[in-house]
Amino acid sequence: MIYPKNSEDKLGFTEIKQLIKAKCLSIMGQEMVDKIQVMNNFDQIQKFLRQTSEFKNILSNDTALPISNFHDIKTLAKKARVEGTFLSEDEFFQVQQSLITVFAVLAYFNERAGLYPNLEALFEHLPIEKNILKAIDRVLDLKGKVRPNASRELQEITSGIAQAEQAARKTIEQIFKNAGNNGWTADGSLTIRDGRLCIPLLAENKRKLKGFIHDESSSGQTVYVEPEEVFTLNNRVRDLEFERRREIIKILTLLTDELRPFVPILISYHGLLTKLDFVRAKALFALDIEAEMPVLVREMRVNLINASHPLLLLSHKKEQKSVVPLNIKIDETDRIIVVSGPNAGGKSVCMKTVGLLQLMVQAGLLIPAAEQSETGVFRQIFSDIGDDQSIESDLSTYSAHLSKMKYFVEMADSKTLVLIDEFGTGTDPQFGGPIAEAVLESLNQKKVKGVITTHYSNLKLFASNTAGLENASMLFDNLQLRPMYILEVGKPGSSYAFEIAQKIGLPAYVINSAKNKIGVNQKKVDTLLIDLERDKKEVLDAKLNLQKQERRANVLLRENEELKRYLEENKKELIREAKKEAKTIIQDANRLVENTISEIKSSNADKETIRNLRENLQKELQKNTVKPEIVPVKEAPEIAVGDWVKLNDSETMGQVMEIARDNVIIAIGDLRTVAKRKKVQKIARKEVPKEIRRSYNQQLNDTASFSPEIDVRGKRGEESLYEIEKYLDRAIMMGVGSLKIIHGKGDGILRKLIRDYLKKYNEVSHVEDEHADRGGDGITYVYLK
């Protein structure tokens, strides 16, 4: 239950429904949007959420659903149900087009059986009766007109009309030609008057041609005459037209009779089309607000992660601004969040975001929040927002607030979500504060969940000392005197009244006078809160900086792991090659010895021959023997940028990119590594294999020719992501600072797909739209860390 009735208006839910309504293709879908209600049946909410999520997936990642025609066939079916009635050509055409859409949709989901189970449930057990469509197709053509051969009688009548019209035209053309030769006709050609073909005659010649005068020109100089000879033929055409109309009515009546038994099925098809239009509209709106399906839980709790107010999000999109995400958790430990902080700091938006997103979830709508967000299903949602003074009831603003508080205290329970803006205001703070505290205490005892905004210090103090209540504040930059719109849970916030007054330009003597008028204790509390805000901001900045350093450390660690793996693999490869070469040498030596012995035995050689064979054997063995070579110790040559070096503990070669004290930064293929100078030795360029030098030169050429811009317009989603992945990897390897991705505007689906993909890269700092004059949200700028 929602209380009061205008809560949906105050929270913005009515405007959400209007935006969804605009997405519908049919009046039936719009009527269904008007009937959207906040539900508290867990299974029903879950079903509606999943249906919308599946349709959103179709719109984002699958082939378009073949939806093109939505007509109110329910009304037509009810008309056809009455004996003796018949549907017109246009009405049958609407039924025909709707049935084509229904069967195309059923075929679409049959091809994807099991992929969209919740959408498939919309037409579960729905009979496929194509005989209806076949019957209509026999009578109507694709333009919705009765076929000339729909019946034998109609075919004969149509043929008769064609023959009579041909005879009439042939006769009148001959008369027109003769009249023209006699100079009787006016300028122009044969023309139609009153549905009859007539000859334009000069007024002075109208008695020279027998016939019926149908009309005359505005000047009276021309008359339009239907010749007597043609009159009978045209009457025959007119009679046949009447016969044709009667035959068409007869055909449509018979077709309606044939359709009548299928009226219940037609109504079921109507229901399917209406629901599809409704779910499609919700999915399209979900794409507009970048919505996801949260985790629905049976407990009375809310955990919103990176949530946004949907209306604020849409407004900021138009202005190409971003929305600061909201993170808030309401559970059994922290049941009521008491939010304080400066005016225009975002307190009300925070509270309204919680309320609106809860209404949307319980109405089966996806919400602009991370899919890890959790929401329970509340039986009651109470709100007190804005000024509700009533002249009719003679209620002041504060009286109206108290009336609501009375209802809250009496009716709220543990399954109630309460939203109160500016709690306790509207009367003398000396009395309004204690009353508000008492109401808050009562609500807390009832285990109510909710969000309350306030400036009252006694409520902040009460929340900090009471189990079930939790203080929170909207962060404020007290150096630049501007709100940060970030909710920080755990501590109350200052109202920054004096600081804001100073920024606005209120005279210093007025501000000083005001400071002297407040109590010493209150001044200490407010100063303490300001200092606390400053400390929180410093902690937040330090936390963000630490996260950035941690990400950088993870990147370096990953690079080192890759380098280590590369060296290990290279080392194993060298050992494997050496073993293979040694094995070959041994095999060759054994073969040589065996051949020598065989020659000695087979030739009964003398001593001289044996000696020669032994000498040849010794020479061949020495060829494959590596002699130790004494290398004189030389002083290590100086290493400079661009030199080729080899790691001492392996055969790995690379080129020096940079020298920093005792360290050298070496490029090994696509990798970069840091080594101590004493751990590497300089080698001549000619000692480096050509393929390694060629690879390095190619890399330099790639770097020089690399363009920080990629255009994926016209490509499918998977193809675009594949191109962007290769492009982004090269950019990261080359140390490029920013990239430009041109994807076009369209429906925004490709843009959303690309930006969601970029979130998976830790190296991506942030993304933003191009300037509106240079492409706007059709171009995404990617900034790398």
Q: What's the main sheet like?
A: 7 strands, mixed
Radius of gyration: 43 Å
Spatial sequence of strands, sheet with the most strands:
1-11-12-13-9-14-15
Can you tell me the CATH class of the largest domain? Answer: Alpha Beta
- Span between termini: 49 Å
- Enumerate the spans where pLDDT stays under 50 for 5 or more consecutive residues: 389-394, 626-634
The name of the CATH topology of the largest domain is: Rossmann fold
The general outline is: extended
The averaged pLDDT comes out at: 82
Query: What's the name of the CATH homologous superfamily of the largest domain?
Result: P-loop containing nucleotide triphosphate hydrolases
Supply the CATH architecture of the largest domain.
Answer: 3-Layer(aba) Sandwich
Helical amount: 40-55%
- What oligomeric assembly is this protein in? single chain
Record field, number of beta strands: 24
Q: How many domains in all?
A: 5
Q: What's the helix count?
A: 23
Q: Indicate the structural class.
A: alpha/beta
Coiled coil: 529-627
Domain Smr: 710-785
EC number: 3.1.-.-, 3.6.4.-
GO molecular function: ATP binding; ATP hydrolysis activity; ATP-dependent DNA damage sensor activity; endonuclease activity; mismatched DNA binding; ribosomal large subunit binding; rRNA binding
Question: What topology does this entry show?
Answer:
Elements (H helix, E strand, L loop, with lengths): L1 E2 L3 H5 L1 H9 L5 H8 L7 H20 L11 H9 L7 H23 L5 H4 L10 H9 L12 H30 L9 E3 L2 E7 L8 E6 L5 E6 H32 L3 H26 L6 E2 L5 E6 L2 H9 L7 E5 L3 E7 L6 H16 L11 E2 L4 E5 L12 H15 L4 E5 L8 H17 L3 E5 L3 H8 L3 E10 L4 E8 L7 H8 L3 H10 L2 H84 L3 H17 L20 E4 L5 E8 L2 E6 L2 E6 L3 E4 L6 H16 L3 E3 L5 H18 L3 E5 L6 H10 L5 E6 L9 E6 L1
Parallel strand pairs: 1-11, 6-10, 9-13, 9-14, 11-12, 12-13, 21-22
Antiparallel strand pairs: 2-3, 3-5, 4-5, 7-8, 7-10, 14-15, 16-17, 16-20, 17-18, 18-19, 22-24, 23-24
Helix pairs in contact: 2-3, 3-11, 4-11, 5-11, 6-8, 6-11, 8-10, 9-10, 15-16, 19-20, 22-23
Keywords: ATP-binding, Coiled coil, DNA-binding, Endonuclease, Hydrolase, Nuclease, Nucleotide-binding, RNA-binding, rRNA-binding
Family: Belongs to the DNA mismatch repair MutS family. MutS2 subfamily.
GO molecular function, one term: ATP-dependent DNA damage sensor activity
